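User: Predict the structure for this protein chain, please.
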Amino acid sequence: QVQLVESGGGLVQAGGSLRLSCAASRSSSSLEAMGWYRQAPGEQRELVAYIFGGGSTNYAAAVKGRFTISRDRNTVYLQMNNLKSEDTAVYYCKVRSEMTSYWGQGTQVTVSS
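Assistant: Here is the predicted structure, written as structure tokens:
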């Protein structure tokens, strides 16, 4: 079992920035991939960004150029710049370890226009 602790959500004005963090309880060597999803009210959960063990990344088109995912050992970060009202959602950390996926509890990001 992998425990995930998320932090960094909050309320920000449009154009502002936030950084999300997600720390995993398992050592980094067993974390194959780490990423972020989000779910807005009435919408399905969608991929935001993902980073693989070798360092390659994948971004949703809606956030490319504004968000940056990075990783330091067993912690994954999501730097969100130039936030827009449509970025408002609950953001979830997802980690894959030993072919099993684990989800964080979610952190609310609200962007006011």
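The first strand starts at residue 4 and ends at 7.
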